[in-house]
Design brief:
Elements lengths: L1 E8 L2 H17 L3 E8 L2 H4 L16 H8 L5 E5 L11 E6 L7 E5 L13 E3 L3 H10 L4 E3 L5 H9 L5 E5 H6 L8 E4 L14 E6 L3 H8 L4 H17 L7 E8 L2 E8 L8 E8 L6 H11 L2 H12 L9
Parallel strand pairs: 1-2, 1-3, 6-7, 6-8
Antiparallel strand pairs: 3-10, 4-10, 5-8, 5-9, 11-12, 12-13
């Protein structure tokens, strides 16, 4: 029996993702046994600072990559939205699982919908992207940082620390946590465009291991891989980190690929939006094309200033 070791964070959602990939591999390859190497990342331990101040979401992936480079794991399973566009030498992001529902979702114990929030209501989110988009439509709302795993965030909502919070729908669905929340509303895409890679899993491997590459590729979804490559190319070309106030989404609509991008200040001002499309046959390089359009329209200046003002009363920390 051949053995493969998957490196994974030890959070409930990360373990769901790792066990999903484990089960899919063992269904496809009857001679393969998958084990998990569970790691509590430093990004999971520091809960008193916004993610953008501790280096962004890349800290959720670094320890897993270190385990692979040290020979303690053959592959890692990530939420693709957490994976930086830079991959260390010796490793490779080779497979993207089929994308599921990318929606962000409004959650509250007090108010039935986003529109019913009263003036100056307190909304919790960790994301500068979400802050930007929420404040662009409701400048009166008070944004409050929200850290911790999913269960911790929901407990804080239940305790009344927030009037509402906004999270990714897919994680709550996977952990079957939506049933305990009185008011749940998926937010429309024209209000809340998702980040790079949302609702897909990225499978990263040790590049030299041809057998693990073959196994990982069996889980790759070609359409999702195309769309997320466009999104990752855009983020890399524009120089935005995982925590920057940037939204980017590529979607296949009939025989076309439609790409929507947005940057702005976290307070909802200085918003720049663009939309482009292309036939599937001509979609290569579409992310880079969108980045060029956004840069020509002033996106880099917006992002530079957004970084200065995002947490002006805090000091960035290196891990």
């Amino acid at each position: 029996m051949e053995k493969i070791v998957i490196a994974t964070r030890a959070s409930d959602l990360a373990l769901w993702q790792a066990y999903f990939v484990k089960d899919e591999i063992e269904k496809r390859f009857s001679d393969v046994k998958v084990e998990l190497n569970k790691i509590t990342s430093r990004g999971d331990k520091i809960l008193d600072k916004p993610l953008a101040l501790i280096g962004g979401k890349g800290h959720f992936t670094k320890e897993l990559e270190d385990e692979m480079l040290a020979g303690n794991a053959d592959m890692a399973v990530h939420s693709l939205k957490d994976v930086p566009t830079f991959i260390p030498d010796g490793l490779e992001l080779v497979a993207i699982t089929k994308r599921e529902d990318q929606s962000d979702v409004f959650l509250s114990h007090k108010y039935k919908s986003f529109d019913e929030l009263p003036k100056n209501a307190v909304v919790g989110t960790t994301s500068l992207r979400r802050r930007m988009q929420i404040k662009s439509v409701r400048s009166d709302l008070q944004m409050k940082d929200l850290r911790g795993n999913v269960n911790t965030r929901l407990r804080k909502l239940r305790e009344g620390q927030y009037d509402a919070i906004v999270l990714a729908y897919i994680g709550l669905k996977r952990l079957d946590l939506l049933k305990d929340i009185p008011f749940v509303q998926k937010l429309p895409f024209d209000m809340m465009t998702p980040p790079m890679g949302q609702a897909s899993l990225g499978i990263e491997i040790v590049s030299a291991n041809k057998r693990v590459r073959e196994i990982a590729l069996s889980l790759n979804d070609e359409e999702t891989a195309l769309c997320t490559e466009i999104e990752r190319d855009f983020v890399k070309e524009i120089g935005a980190g995982c925590s920057a106030p940037v939204s980017i989404n590529a979607k296949i609509e009939e025989d076309s690929v439609v790409v929507r991008a947005m940057v702005g200040f976290p307070d909802g001002t200085h918003i720049l939006k663009k939309k482009i499309n292309s036939t599937l046959d001509n979609s290569k390089g579409l992310g880079i094309k969108m980045a060029k359009i956004m840069k020509e329209a002033g996106a880099l200046d917006i992002l530079k200033e957004a970084e200065k003002i995002a947490f002006k009363d805090s000091v960035a920390q290196r891990l």
